[in-house]
């Protein structure tokens, strides 16, 4: 069991749709391909005419309103966060912006590994 002092706010999980994770309900999971998925929604079924396509994309963005803008901003912020933390592989479970476990899709197990490492270090 992961100790109580690892708070959900201190844990970030970076992944994508191809690397599903078993995350705790209160852990933030950042899908690094979310921005590409949103862009694909915008580009779906566009006509070949660039002017018509641009008008349709603008309309889709307007129709999405604040929710769309927030989704897009959150998606790109996740990419920025991963880059700023130096994430090199996924899935990556990060605690306290200091400890990371790569390649483990089980967040509880990764958190337990980090806790064990922290206990063993002077």
From TrEMBL:
Pfam families reported in the protein's UniProt record: DUF1525
Domain of life, source organism: Bacteria
Family annotation (InterPro entries): Integr_conj_element_PFL4709 (IPR011090)
NCBIfam families referenced in this protein's UniProt entry, alphabetically: conj_TIGR03757
Name of the featured protein: TIGR03757 family integrating conjugative element protein
Originating organism: Alloalcanivorax xenomutans
Lineage per the UniProt record: Bacteria, Pseudomonadati, Pseudomonadota, Gammaproteobacteria, Oceanospirillales
């Amino acid at each position: 069991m992961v100790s109580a002092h690892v708070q959900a706010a201190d844990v970030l999980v970076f992944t994508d749709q191809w690397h599903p994770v078993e995350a705790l309900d209160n852990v933030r999971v950042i899908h690094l391909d979310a921005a590409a998925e949103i862009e694909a929604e915008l580009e779906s079924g566009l006509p070949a005419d660039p002017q018509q396509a641009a008008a349709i994309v603008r309309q889709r963005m307007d129709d999405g309103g604040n929710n769309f803008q927030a989704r897009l901003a959150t998606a790109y912020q996740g990419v920025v966060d991963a880059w700023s933390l130096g994430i090199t592989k996924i899935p990556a479970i990060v605690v306290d912006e200091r400890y990371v476990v790569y390649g483990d899709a089980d967040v509880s197990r990764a958190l337990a590994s980090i806790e064990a490492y922290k206990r063993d270090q002077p």
